[in-house]
Amino acid sequence: MSADADSPSRSYAPAASRWAVRLVAVGLVLAALNLRPAISALGPLLKEVRADLGMSGAVAGLLTSVPALCFAVFGSLAPRLARRRGPAPVVLAGMVTITVGLVLRPLAGGTGAFLAASALALAGIAVSNVLMPVVVKRWFPSRVGTMTGLYSMGLALGTAGAAAVTVPMTGALGGSWRAGLGAWALLGVLAILPWAFVLKDPGSRRAETPPPVRGGSGTASSAPAAPGEDGRIRIGASPTAWALGVFFGLQASAAYIIMGWLPQIFRDAGVSASSAGLMLAVTMGMGVPLAFVVPRLATRMRHQGPLVAALGVCGITGYAGLWLAPAEGAWLWALLLGVANCAFPVALTMISLRSRSSAGVVKLSAFAQSTGYLLSIPGPLLVGALRDATGGWHAPLLLMAALLLAQTFTGVLAGRDRVIEDGR
């Protein structure tokens, strides 16, 4: 679907004032920055957290899969909440929930309390994850690519920044992991402020409702709803929704695999630990500039399939390089896999493009992300199991390549110029 299809006339949100729209833009970026530090800040301090709380290895391993599970479970609640309250109040509640979880986590005296506080923060992240494409569709219907790019760039910055800054910040705050993790609650407070002010605008508080149609007498009358625009979209019966959900899950699985295992692949090939960590930073850092460019390119295309295929080629080339010459071309493979990871902002952009209305986008976003995050859970675990069973990386790389081929295929299907309201 071309960008022209995202004209304001296709979104039924009440008109918001200009100042509210500007605040939403600021809030969108701050929310994106706040959606990953609860996850990526924990990894560098996990050893200290485990030692202090007496956390077992099994529970520590569970922490790596809990985010995706929480995203799937809690994200499914977003459509009902947004339908009743509107997206802005629900995003505000999500930011508050994240902040409270980040405040409570350092106060935990045991593993159970730590997990509960983490789950609270992840619940807020899950709901906000689903509603970010909805916010873009509702307030910026003619700038989907630009605003999705800003949001995706904020996500990448929040992820990489928390991973890089948490350890030195912890040292500056006295060396306690509690202070290092708790400091990220300040970012949550900052993200709350613009959304609290947005709610002062009446048009931003209301849930989406189709506008009345004036009859010949000048009175309001109800026009027949377009297919699927009456709130009864059969999302589970849409092949486009399923293709997008599977595509989202496979790209998330690839990202988790790369984040979890790429440094080890390089280290097993003889690369030093510091260099392997730096290469992972390069891979993840590629998402910062490209996340702003790729969505804008996607909205200019009627069919996003060729873009998905191009990213797939980069990923396959990177995996082939890891198979044939992991150490010799390590920097090149890291760059190519960083480009391939931009399937994430493409998936977010397609969520906004595959429905005519904000009501459709919230259902599609919840379905695609909940389905996708559930599908993403086994991937990293299977890669680790194959590595242990075979003692090398060839079998895991074959699995990674197969998953990427499936990702590309489903992404091409999801990228076709059609919307979920059109049914089959």
TrEMBL record:
The keyword Transmembrane applies. It is a multi-pass membrane protein. Residues 20-418 form the Major facilitator superfamily (MFS) profile domain. It holds the Pfam family MFS_1. InterPro entries: MFS, MFS_Cyanate_Porter, MFS_dom, MFS_trans_sf. One of its GO terms (cellular component) is plasma membrane. This is Transporter. The lineage of its organism: Bacteria, Bacillati, Actinomycetota, Actinomycetes, Kitasatosporales.
